Amino acid sequence: MKILMVCLGNICRSPLAEGLLKSKIDPTKASVDSAGTGNFHVDEAPDPRMIKTARKYGVDISSLRGRQFEPADFDRFDRIYVMDEGNYDKVIAQARTAADESKVDLLLNQLEPGSNLPVPDPYFGGDQGFEEVYNLVAKATDQIAQKIEHGTL
Ligand code: 4NP
Q1: What is the pLDDT of residue 66?
Q2: I need a labelling partner for 144 at 20 to 30 A (CA). Which of 23, 30, 94, 151 fits?
């Protein structure tokens, strides 16, 4: 099972989701990557505030680097989890087939199916926003990790 986490910049929410899910799964059962729909932070390390929050909870995301989502990602991945509806629209706009589209879902639909709730963009806010991102992404990645373990994702 190959999983891609997608946000806007690929420096806050999706690298955290990548690092957290990697820390919870058997690497022989699944792999995880992340990307951004925007190109402004390509090759950059995650935001220092996200690195710090992840480190506080024992997850090191400092070696990850930003990259932009591209249509070939539909071929590379089985599931594509996006952080909000803006990311959803940008990814879906690049889908070539109905099969591509069916791979994409909002990450927080793992917690409340069909709710389409966002992981709020923390970039322009304060530290509390990074804590909120951590809490939401931790719960959602717990769900995904359990499904991987049980072979039900
Ligand atoms: P992310 O956060 O999508 O969670 O990585 C953002 C990072 C950078 C920007 C916006 C959101 N930006 O506008 O540069």
Answers
A1: 98
A2: 94
Kindly give, in sequence order, each residue whose CB lies less than 8 Å from that of residue 106, ignoring residues fewer than 6 positions away: 81, 82, 83, 84, 85, 88, 115, 116, 117, 118
d(CA 75, CA 59): 28
Q: How far is the CA of 47 from the centre of ligand 1 (A)?
A: 9
69-102, pLDDT tens digit by residue?
999 999 999 999 999 999 999 999 999 999 999 9
Query: pTM (2 decimals)?
Result: 0.98
Task: Judge whether 67 and 21 are in contact, CB under 8 Å.
Answer: no
> Atom 12, ligand 1: which residue's CA is nearest?
9
Are 83 and 9 contacting, i.e. CB atoms less than 8 angstroms apart?
no
